[in-house]
Design a protein that fits this description.
Radius of gyration: 21 Å
Strand order of the largest sheet: 1-23-20-25-18-16-17
Number of domains: 2
Largest sheet: 7 strands, mixed
CATH topology of the largest domain: Jelly Rolls
Helix content: 10-25%
Length: 391
């Protein structure tokens, strides 16, 4: 399997430094004439668009830090205590929330009468058509990660506001703001059932029991290295060397291929897998390539070094909430360069489940595995879609 080389200059366009980001509310005030106050009331006080395709529709597609592939946006919401957007629905996309710092309450339902609370690195995936809202319930400013996934860019013009919120926006900001939001794909549902803006499906209700299956509590998960022996057929020592000391699978599609498809906490869309690597100081997986999927890394705590290229010859360091998107075909590796345990978010995206059978190891790694553990380990990983390249 062929690999490619990416220069530092080329990779720079795929790196988002959290400290460099500008809020979406400031961009919208200038770009399409929605007052900053109106945007911050509708969405959150500060939203940073870390990654999105440039041609994506919807109200959160202004100048992403990283230009990503069709079908996914990654956003960070910075919220003071009590900050929350208006209740709203996404009708064709799945909106997943991960608490980064502090604590967040996720409400849902037409009356926002159901809720769960997220601790740091807990995650929830809200299905399409459900009215939802998040709120910082901490005593201090807190950060929330928002991952929105859809089948294509056209799915992202899919937000609607319920009747009570429509009345509030019209009364406070006037019809002009509603009209401007309509132009970027936001619909407003009225008390009489009429919808202003793009057509949307009818909202749905989800019970607390059903939503519980869409929640990943990080402190209740076991690492893949502890749970996947029957699935892969290699020792825990091998799995921790190849992948990372502790790798938690928060969300993945059912029946996904590849070596990291074992008992995901949340059954998600086929285009995305979400993992958290919890690494002691110096911990790192072996150098490897994803040939058909994009692997995105975001530092959650501590500091991580991302290496890429032949022998891992290039590198950049990530501080908390910095992000890098590594393209297919590039050898890559991450390492915790902190003095304490640290966590790294890994988001892998592909066009279909079959894309995930796409990992290969470079020749020197192949030789290391063969000499240390024998051909049987290489054969076992080969049965899970991993290729070991030879000289």
């Amino acid at each position: 399997m062929k690999t490619i080389e990416v220069s530092q200059a080329e990779m720079a366009a795929r790196i988002a430094r959290f400290s460099d980001q500008e809020s979406q509310s400031a961009l919208y005030a200038e770009a399409i004439g929605i007052p900053r106050e109106a945007y911050e009331v509708m969405a959150a006080e500060t939203l940073y668009l870390m990654m999105a395709p440039t041609e994506q529709g919807g109200p959160m597609a202004q100048n992403p830090a990283i230009t990503g592939d069709s079908g996914m946006s990654i956003i960070i919401a910075r919220c003071p205590p009590g900050d929350k957007p208006l209740l709203h629905a996404h009708h064709y996309t799945i909106e997943s929330f991960m608490c980064l710092t502090g604590r967040f309450r996720i409400r849902w339902g037409s009356q926002a009468d159901q809720h769960i609370d997220l601790e740091p690195h807990d995650m929830i995936a809200v299905p399409p058509g459900v009215d939802r809202q998040f709120e910082n319930i901490s005593d201090d400013e807190a950060l929330l990660l928002v991952i929105i996934t859809g089948s294509g860019n056209e799915d992202f013009a899919d937000i609607s506001m319920p009747p009570d919120e429509t009345d509030f926006v019209r009364e406070r900001f006037g019809q002009t703001v509603i009209d401007r939001y309509n132009r970027v794909g936001v619909a407003f549902r009225n008390q009489n059932g009429a919808v202003e803006g793009p057509p949307v499906t009818a909202p749905i209700e989800v019970s607390a029991a059903d939503m519980e299956t869409r929640i990943a509590r990080i402190d209740k998960l076991q690492p893949l290295s502890a749970t996947s022996d029957d699935s892969i057929g290699v020792s825990r020592e091998v799995r921790e060397l190849v992948a990372a000391k502790n790798l938690f699978l928060l969300m993945a599609p059912d029946n996904q291929g590849g070596p990291m498809a074992h008992n995901a906490a949340i059954s998600g869309p086929e285009s995305i897998s979400v993992l958290v690597a919890e690494c002691p100081p110096g911990d790192r997986p072996l150098l490897h390539t994803h040939h058909h999927t994009v692997e995105n890394f975001m530092c959650l705590t501590g500091e991580f070094r991302i290496r890429w290229g032949d022998g891992g010859c290039e590198h950049i360091d990530l501080k908390p909430f910095d992000m890098i998107s590594v393209p297919p075909g590039v050898d890559r590796q991450f390492e915790n360069i902190s003095d304490a345990d640290a966590r790294l978010l890994v988001v892998i995206t592909g066009s279909s489940q079959s894309d995930y059978n796409d990992i290969s190891m470079p020749p020197d790694v192949t030789e290391l595995i063969r000499s240390r553990f024998g051909q049987s380990v290489i054969d076992a990983y080969g049965n899970r879609g991993v290729t070991f390249r030879e000289e």
